[in-house]
Write a structure and sequence with these properties.
29% helix, 8-stranded antiparallel beta sheet, alpha+beta, disordered N terminus, 6 helices
Length: 207
Amino acid sequence: MNHRSRGCLGFTGSLLLFACALVPLPSFAQNATKTDQWIHVRVESKDDSGETVRVNVPIEMAAKVLPAIHHDQLQGGKVHISKGDLNDVDIRALLDAVRTAKDGEYVTVQGNDENVRVSKNAGYLYIHVQEKKHGEKPAKGVASKENKVEVKVPMKVVDALFSAGKDELDVVAALHALSSSGDTELVSVKDDENTVRVWIDSKNVSD
């Protein structure tokens, strides 16, 4: 898992923990209805401590808290992105091409270091990244070590994310779109150190 991926996951976890600290969750849960959607993050450590961290946050609460946060690129519920971050790629043009295209597999990269697959099916955008580990050859009968990232995002959430002005991502709009998407597995990350899962459902506790 590269440094940028770890930093992104770390910031996400910090942001959710910050949201939990702002609102007393027990009282909020008492007022929640069965139709409320919650975003869940579970991180399981593979080291000797075997620590597991679970974070459960109502999506609507997160949507109210985010506009109050002003940290680096995250300002008022929107994230500023520069061309340098995107390697001069016109992400809006790519999004429009994917949105209007038929379902299918758009990108497949098989390399020595990683395999990448990007596809769209039934209103969802899928991104699969498999990072290969190099080094000692695994013992017979032992699977080779690989880092895997799987992302599944409703296209309406992607549309909402890019509904802000130029060079911005509207995180709050994406959360509102996400809340109407039903139960969905969003992110799964598996590497040598941690297993991370992010999903949404109507439960106020995680599995």
